[in-house]
Design brief:
single chain, mainly alpha, Fumarase C, Chain B, domain 1, Fumarase C, Chain A, domain 2, Ribonucleotide Reductase Protein R1, domain 1, two-stranded antiparallel ribbon, two-stranded parallel ribbon, 6 strands, binds arginine
Length: 458
């Protein structure tokens, strides 16, 4: 088959080269963006007096027919035509004749592909931002419903201090809120139009790039034609935010995997989101969560893959840049899947209070015993030491803190009085942490109200 660029060639392309260099097998993902861009470009050419009204109409009709076939899955993609751009252009010429050959006037695939990618990323970033919002809503609602539940917070995976379960879910909401801000910020830099930059140096036809930007809904135009065609920073940045969001999802997934183990038994995962074992009948495996954790590896890999592609290429466009697409498409698909999966799990969680609550007692309360003494004037370091000796004593005796007598406590410090027993209830201890951002019920209740309003749930 004759290539659109075959003029200076005297040999047919090697079969291997066709297979090795093609991108249409994956960049057809950009087909609808490509056609949208084609139409805007044609209108810009008309405005510049390069195409007549008649020609413009003919080309746009041809493009719309192609779009319809693509949407209906009827379009025949040809590997010999290399990529999505040349497939569509060649088909256009086939359908509308020579006039179709005017489509690529004043344009290069270099500014074309960057434009498609930015259009695609605008759409996908919006979708991801919506999915993040759905997830945050689920977290806030779960927080509201779990305000009464107390469990130990862990540091070093050792029981640390009692918290309200709601506090935990609100922590993740904060992370996903920051991720949302990062996507929004990244979106601002995606939202610039490269088209009109040509292959590298700009365009010698009198086209109005601001007009194209307006037609395509871009907020700005890229101000330098070299940068416009060489740049994939907007993709790298997007992939970074995907990787960071994936890391948050993975940590949440990991907590829930641990909590759903029989050893912890803090949560029950919905059956419909778990799978069984082909050999061990008792198993209910948290595969969705495990895959969310595992797929984070891809999100990291995709970022690193693109950064590596970019680091050594001479400015400006090089074919290496074609390698940006598979990581990009993969991260979009992976992150969207993980966001949906984790939300479904969160919405389906049930909690086992009888397992969490006792674990939030005993030595988890001892920090507050030290604080009790500190409030009575003992230097905290010394109070810490006394409280530590109480722990050692109770371990030796095989007793829980709740079972200690006032007499025993007094043997450690005369300052202990009856009121110390108030501290032996995890919820009392949690609710003492009333500072802004602390786990006390009154703090969390306020923050849940704020969060419900911020998420449009109130
Ligand atoms: N398929 C190419 C890519 O994805 C499109 C741009 C090709 N440009 C070129 N000068 N060969 O990067």
């Amino acid at each position: 088959m004759e290539k659109p660029w075959s003029g200076r060639f005297s040999e047919e392309t090697d079969e291997f080269v066709e297979e090795f260099t093609e991108s249409v097998s994956f960049d057809r993902e950009l087909a609808l963006e490509d056609i949208r861009q084609d139409i805007a470009h044609v209108r810009t050419l008309q405005k510049a007096g390069i195409l007549s009204e008649e020609e413009t109409k003919k080309i746009i009709e041809g493009l719309k027919g192609i779009e319809k076939d693509i949407r209906e899955g009827k379009f025949e993609w040809k590997r010999e035509l290399e990529d999505v751009h040349m497939n569509i252009e060649a088909e256009l010429i086939k359908r509308v004749g020579d006039v179709g050959g005017k489509l690529h006037t004043g344009r290069s695939r270099n500014d074309q592909v960057a434009t498609d990618e930015r259009l695609f990323l605008k759409k996908e970033t919006e979708e991801i931002i919506n999915l993040l919002k759905e997830l945050r809503k689920a977290l806030v609602i779960t927080a509201r419903n779990s305000i009464d539940l107390i469990l130990p917070a862990y540091t070093h995976l050792q029981r640390a201090q009692p918290i309200r379960l709601a506090h935990y879910f609100l922590a993740f909401r904060e992370m996903f809120l920051k991720d949302t801000e990062r996507f929004l910020d990244c979106y601002r830099r995606i939202d610039e139009l490269p088209l009109g930059s040509g292959a590298v140096a700009g365009v010698d036809f009198p086209i109005d790039r601001h007009y194209t930007a307006e037609l395509l809904g871009f907020n700005k135009i890229v101000r330098n034609s070299i940068y416009a065609t060489a740049d994939r920073d907007f993709i790298a940045e997007f992939l970074f935010v995907c990787a960071l969001t994936g890391m948050h999802l993975s940590r949440l997934a990991e907590d829930l995997i641990i909590w759903s183990s029989e050893e912890f038994s803090y949560v029950d995962l919905p059956d419909k989101l778990c799978t069984g074992s082909s050999i061990m009948p008792q198993k209910k495996n948290p595969d969705v969560l495990e895959l969310i954790r595992g797929k984070t590896g891809r999100l990291y890999g995709n970022l690193l893959s693109l950064l590596t592609v970019l680091k050594g290429i001479p400015t400006a466009y090089n074919r290496d840049l074609q390698e940006d697409k598979e990581p990009l498409f993969d991260s979009v698909k992976t992150l969207k899947g993980s966001l949906i999966g984790i939300r479904k799990v969160i919405e389906g969680l049930s909690f086992k209070e009888h397992k969490m609550y006792p674990n939030a007692g005993n030595f988890v309360l001892i920090t507050d015993v030290a604080n009790y003494l500190a409030l009575k004037g003992i230097p905290f370091r010394k109070a810490h030491h006394i409280a530590g000796s109480i722990v050692a004593y109770l371990i030796e005796k095989g007793k829980r803190l709740e079972d200690i007598t006032l007499e025993e406590l007094r043997s450690f410090s005369e300052l202990f009085e009856e009121d110390v027993f108030n501290l032996f209830k995890p919820e009392n201890v949690a609710d003492r942490r009333k500072t802004y951002g602390g786990t006390a019920r009154e703090q969390i209740t306020k923050l849940i109200e704020v969060a419900l309003r911020e998420e449009g749930l109130k």
